[in-house]
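Example protein as discussed:

>
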Amino acid sequence: MNIWNKYHQSFLSLSLAALLCFTFLISSADVKASNKSTSKKTIESSVIKKTLSVKKAKNQKTSNQKMKKIKKLNLNAWKVSYNWNGTSEMEKKKGMLVIKNTEFNHACYTQTVSVKPHTNYRIRALVRVDNYKQGKQNPGGVTVGYGDPSKYACLENDFITSNKWKQSEAWFCSGKNKKVTLYVANGGFAAITKGTAYIKDIILEELDTNNKWNVLALIYKNIKTPTYQDSFSDTDVKELKTILEKVPDSFKRLSNKRMLINTMDIKVIDKPVKTISDSESAYAGTLTYGRGNDINFDQYLKGKDYNQIIIYAPTWKLVLQNDKKEQWGGLGGTYYRYKGRNIYTCIINIGPNVAGIPSVDIYGENYDSRICFIVHEMLHCVETNSRLRGYSDFTALHDGKDHGYVDSREVEWMDYYSDLMKDTIKSGAKGFYKTSFYVPHMPK
């Protein structure tokens, strides 16, 4: 009995020891698991913090980049530059410029700022007026801009005459310049006003640019004036759409991706155009467009980031009345002023042979030959863009013959156009620069 008790006690002791050991092992495993879980959470927390830190750094970098592109102009740096009849006064008041024309006048105040060459900018400000009157013959308004304020630089069509705060802005390229003159004006070149202009938050902003053009194509189907009538048929319109849809790929290949058409929006306008110019000097620019005319682009431009407008109209008989062999004429290199921006325009007056010759080989690749007149007129816009960017030594669009190229009635100088865009002209002459194709875009 004693032996059993002794054995029983030993067994209980061993069992208790085993239980304690097992409990210890479990506790130890729990601790390890807990430590592992804590360690995992710590690592996850560390990763999250690191990710947030990276995001914060990126956001800070983006914010810093944006800040570098935006400069608030010094209010005290504005000086009188042009005061047509001496009846304008300016003062700085509560963070604003206050320009008061006590009589009908045109007055500009300027400051010179440093810029990067070949770079696109916009100057913008919030403006409003009080006790304001416009000249009857030459109505002006409040505006901001760049250049010599006593000359054409102040020839604006975006004058603001509201007593509520509105944004005035002007886009420009610095060209070769490292410094440019900016202005604020109450009046306008050859335009006068009387009253007070308030101008605040005057900003100079560097714009993003690239070689991606956004194009708006407008097909005006009917021309009906007292002296001239013509229309595109439904078949003509269908053919024109087919041509326009091929433009992006054609520019991409012809320029070796130096000029890209990012968007091509096509709109057909059935409403008849009732006013055109019959002046021979107008040549291809027979369509009169802009505010107050039958052709008003503003309704299509609001909120859009277009760089180019192409206008089609059946006015070939009027334009080419002295050359019956031709079936089209055009005018390119001009621009339409919209809210301080210059949007390039080209007018193409086309005749009944819209179908033309549908294909041609250039440098081993096949193109729709009807593209040639679009390419030609848009390249006039590239010429203008190049000059505004400060380049002047490139070869002119009409000089292909001087450099060994032959004009073809079907495709004009398409091989020359391609070499001009790629800067590979046969004679070694300078073609377009890579940044000749760069256009500014609306800030996001």
